[in-house]
Amino acid sequence: MRYRRYAKYVFLTLAVCMAVYITPHTLVMTPRELLQMGGQQHQVLGNYGVESSKNAAISIMMVTTMWSFVLWGKSRFRNTSRSIDRFIAVAFLAGAANILWLGIYGYYIPANVRVGLSVPYGGDNP
């Protein structure tokens, strides 16, 4: 019951990350729509749905899930220090901020460099 107030933030974070993850990079279109738009990618929305944002979304989902597991484990004990709770929250927020920064940074670098960012995300690097 002590950590119940954090549940809405966990679910909101997971929902936002899932929305980012399911955003398509290209759309299924007829040849006429392709000609009207000038290609497979939209001029404004073409940058959304790239792998950099999807990697960041999945990694933040994993960090949020692990944080919820830590809160669940701590909820079984009555006497836990508030300073430990703050330290854990700051550690997870710092990790999520780093992942978010890597996701945004991926928009501004070439694709061959972006592949190297899969190591901090926890993915395989060929």
Structure description:
- The chain has one domain (4-121).
- The mean pLDDT is 79.
- It is built from six helices and no strands.
- The protein is an all-alpha fold.
- Helix 1 runs antiparallel to helix 3 (51-74) and helix 3 runs antiparallel to helix 4.
- The chain has helices at residues 7-21, 31-37, 51-74, 82-105, 111-114, 118-121.
Which terms would index this structure?
single chain, 126 residues, mainly alpha, 6 helices, 0% strand
Tally of individual helices:
6
Distance between the termini: 45 Å
Instruction: Give the SSE order as H and E letters.
Output: HHHHHH
Roughly what is the average pLDDT, rounded to an integer?
Answer: 79
User: What spatial form do the alpha-carbon principal axes imply?
Assistant: elongated
Task: List the domain count as a whole number.
Answer: 1
Level of helix content? 55-70%
Rg over CA atoms = 19 Å
Decide which structural class fits the backbone: mainly alpha
Beta-strand content estimate: under 5%
> Low-confidence parts, pLDDT < 50 over ≥5 residues?
none
Number of E-state strands: 0
Summarize the main sheet.
Answer: none
